[in-house]
Q: What sequence folds into this?
């Protein structure tokens, strides 16, 4: 029910930051640069900056992506985006974490739902409960996304994490029974209970008829 979207190794050229004054930071951002840090791998954190357009080219802001950093033209360093600070939709700072190509890592990858669920053809409603799935694997084996075919789902059917077919070398980290999608029938409003008696009936006249003096 699932196919993977292969993740090609992408490269991002960055530069070391040598100035840390407020004015230099303002100038950097004005010229389209984004301050960033790269850490991990048992080495000290490095302060760098990346071109805003280059970052947008290789990564979807705010989502974990694997690629290689080339700092001032040096050999690529495998990294993941671990944190993105934003304000008003503008990226202010990015944290990159070094990873080893020989060690499995955990990431959340997007789920891409395809097809028309069978249950929707008879009045059912497809409900998407999850847009990401946590998996584990070597960086070079990680898919950038998982395509899920929902067309077999009938009314009352559910798709859970264990039902997703993963590429070879990739294991599931999410709970097996995590609900991803389901097809439900729309709720039918229950008719209101009939009011007791006839609300429009005239009240019976009191015995004796006339008003008391």
A:
């Amino acid at each position: 029910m699932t196919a993977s979207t292969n993740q090609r190794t992408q490269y991002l050229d960055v530069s070391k930051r040598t100035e840390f004054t407020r004015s230099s930071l303002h100038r950097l951002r004005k010229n389209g640069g984004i301050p960033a840090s790269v850490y991990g791998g048992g080495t000290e954190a490095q302060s760098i900056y990346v071109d805003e357009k280059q970052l947008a080219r290789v990564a979807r802001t705010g989502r974990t992506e694997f690629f290689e950093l080339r700092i001032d033209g040096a050999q690529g360093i495998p990294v993941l985006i671990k944190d993105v600070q934003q304000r008003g939709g503008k990226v202010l700072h990015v944290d990159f974490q070094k990873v080893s190509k020989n060690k499995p890592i955990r990431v959340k990858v997007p789920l891409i739902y395809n097809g028309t669920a069978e249950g929707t053809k008879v009045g059912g409603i497809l409900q998407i409960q999850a847009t990401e799935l946590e998996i584990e694997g070597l960086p070079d084996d990680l898919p950038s996304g998982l395509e899920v075919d929902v067309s077999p789902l009938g009314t009352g059917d559910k798709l859970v994490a264990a039902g997703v077919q993963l590429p070879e070398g990739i294991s599931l980290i999410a709970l097996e029974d995590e609900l991803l999608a389901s097809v439900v029938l729309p709720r039918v409003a229950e008719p209101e209970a009939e009011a007791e008696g006839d609300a429009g009936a005239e009240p019976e006249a009191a015995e004796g008829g006339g008003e008391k003096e």
In short: The chain has two domains: 9-98, 105-184. The domain at 105-184 is CATH 2.170.120.20 (RNA Polymerase Alpha Subunit; Chain A, domain 2). Helices lie at 22-30, 52-58. The first strand starts at residue 2 and ends at 5.
